[in-house]
Amino acid sequence: MTLLSIKSTQHYDFVKLPKTDLHVHLEGTLEPEMLFKFAARNHISLPWKNPKCLYEACKFRDLSGFLAVYYKGCEVLVTEQDFYDLTHAYLQRASADGVVHTEFFFNPQIFRKEKLPLHAIMRAVFSAVHDMQERISCLYMGTVMRTRPVEEALQALDELTPWYHQIAAFGMGGAENGNPPSRFRPYFDACRERGFRICVHAGEEGPAAYVHEAVELNVDRIDHGNAAIHDPDLMQTLVEKRIPLTMCPISNLRLNVVKNLSEHPLKQMLSRGLCVTINSDDPAYFLGYASDNWAAVHQALNLTTNEIFQLAINGIDASFLPKEQKEKWRNQIKTALYS
Ligand SMILES: Nc1ncnc2[nH]cnc12
Ligand SMILES: [Zn+2]
Question: CATH class for domain 3-31+80-338?
Fold first, then answer.
């Protein structure tokens, strides 16, 4: 692959760039058409008449407005086949989009165990991962809701014990304001003691102080982290500790975290030496997969080839892949952009 095949005189074809997607919620990859298909086969009624009406409902005011739709969407996931189809479809789409390695969140807390036992859900998800392993490299991350008691997070961590050997990391998401990371210290400590990497959503809608708390928790990665731009000392700490930020530009735009992508802090943070990465978050609801995010940011922030290279390398560096695999992808990125 040569520079010319990725970049014509007019534009970059970001599908051709070997990319990572390190911050994506499996539940957020449920495309409206698939959502309606599952609802029909599971006899579930929906507040939207058809997929087009759901697309219309995807004009969100903020994170809470989005989460209401997202949790409603999760209700159509009922059978083992649903979880298999969802996982398989995301991996297929990500692979076609040029994602070479993905690390996705999945939160079993959302699903009522009396409907489908956890072992059936996990069997479905991992079986799709297995069936797609020749086409895309993939790591699973458990996650919990910050709006629920910390005891529930610890319980969720315990419940996943049989799958620990297949889990790379644990995280935390949900409505951020009023739910600081520090409240979940017992959960994050337990994750760490059990040998997992940890990441937390912080500084998406919440303040820089929440990002600071995440640093104090010794996290391996911060999901979003936008608010750190307001605190130069905090940014310096993120640089020194080499804590990556998994940023999600189109998500930020759709949830009004930024009014316009030209205001996105990603480029400024990159120039300060932060390990920032580009990711999709909930691509079905935000209408943007990985390469859409790259193209949107490139257009809004006018990235140079060297910045594109650094962002792609950051994705590999920030991943939880073993050293040797990282080296292989770094070389492929270099070849794709510069040879
Ligand atoms: N953007 C987001 N922020 C917090 N929690 C989430 N869960 C799914 N998407 C999320
Ligand atoms: Zn997220």
Answer: alpha beta
